Amino acid sequence: MGTIIYGAAGLLDAAEGVQSDVALYIEGSRIVATGPLAALRGRYPEAALEGGNDVFLLPAFVNSHDHGRAFGSASLGIPDDLLEIWLPLLSGCMAAAPYLAGAWEGAQLLKSGVTVAAHSHIPPAWTQMYDSSVAMLRGYRAAGVRPAFHPPMVDQNPLVYADEAAFLAGLPDAATRALAAPFVQPVPLTTAEYLDLCAALFAEFHDATDHTAHIQVSPAGGQWCSDALILACVDFARQRQTRVQMHLLETRYQAHYARRQWGHSFIRHLDEIGALGDWLTLAHMVWVDEADLELLAARGVGIAHNPSSNLRLRSGVAPLAALLAAGVRVGIGLDGHALDDDQDYLRELRLAYVLANRPGAASPAVTVADIVRLGTAGGADITLGAGAPLGRLAPGCLADVVLLDWAALRGRWSPAGHPAPEDALAFLLHRATRRHVRHVLVQGAWVVRDGRCLTVDEDALADAIRADLARQLQDSGRQAGLAAARVLAPHLRRFYAGWEAAPAP
Ligand SMILES: [Zn+2]
Questions:
Q1: What is the pLDDT of residues 466-486, one digit of tens each?
Q2: Where along the chain do its domains lie?
Q3: CA 347 – CA 345 distance, rounded (Å)
Q4: Distance in Å, CA 297 to ligand 1 centroid
Q5: Residue 335 CA to ligand 1 centre (angstroms)
Q6: What is the DSSP-derived secondary structure letter of residue 122?
Q7: Ligand 1 centre and the CA of 245: distance in Å?
């Protein structure tokens, strides 16, 4: 016997608009039928009945780029700055142990209405890549989130996107150079070792049927990876029909790097080496050239748009309207860096909407429905691949459903019939936050009920995380790394300011 879930209104597919009197019939992990409540009750009279006239149904959200940090870096004592300065500081940031981080992060995402998360892994140490990946995957799965998990790899430019010896030589004295030395060490992992561990994770966790987890690969960022590494990752992904996710063109210095290196854009370079395809997702893409948009669309490349993170790390505002107008595939990700450090996916959609609509009557408009599509079906497309049965509520799709508190959203002041169905999505996008996520279903099972995560014990997790962080707070090695990064910060700022003064060709 299955279950009928109904709502006063709902959005089955962002391409179709809001309907009133909407219901789903679910058996096991999948949606079998959709329609008005009375019609489904007639067809499935034995089904259990859930939902109500005070909820709004919609497909669960897909967080297309994140890191599973469990807590924002600012919450852990690392203030925001330019990415190039913030990253060395991040190496001294406390971090919850991987299982705890995955379980805690998973619970926070579920309570935000997110059931799929692209996870760019940050191992506690490069030597712990495999073990920490397994622990993090198990943490996410304990919560019930579907991770699209990609361990990272880098093989060049660990500190600056330039000749590191020249940067070190420009530091004022030997003591400062000694502080910088640990930041320019090559990673103790070869590309072959990296791909071996990805293959082992793939064999154990990749699930292309029910999409409980995907294992992907990640040359972590264009400037940090040789062409050989990027192409080895592409080969790995294509052989296994999985995906590649990279950070790209997050800051303008990364765009400058490409022009210094090849005399043209990063996107053109990746195309020249055969590294653009529909198996690739590029995160951030703030500094993409308008001239490259058609190429991105033609190659089927996916873009993970991260509006909060791009503001907080002073990267800028990605040209979302132009990307969509060019027909580029786009999803939206939190990057662990939402404006309020709270992984609120609904607020992130709102921010994406207001930033996408630029001043001027002639500016292209991005609609509310466009934004909700990017957060649902668009995200599933670039995170799990074309045709993934998520991001929509249709027969055959996996039953990942969010029930928003429609009564609370409408407020006591809303008269009956307000908002009209054609206005309901804008009403929702401008008002909803994670506190309106009342119930969430993953794979046909309840994971959030009345705002409470059912799958993990958040109180016990918080206690374990607090004890873990208390140990790290006293760790002298971590404190020394953070102090060194703080000493280097003004030198890094001056170094990149020099790039502003003499822009690349
Ligand atoms: Zn990221």
A1: 999 999 999 999 999 999 999
A2: 3-60+393-442, 63-384
A3: 5
A4: 22
A5: 5
A6: -
A7: 10
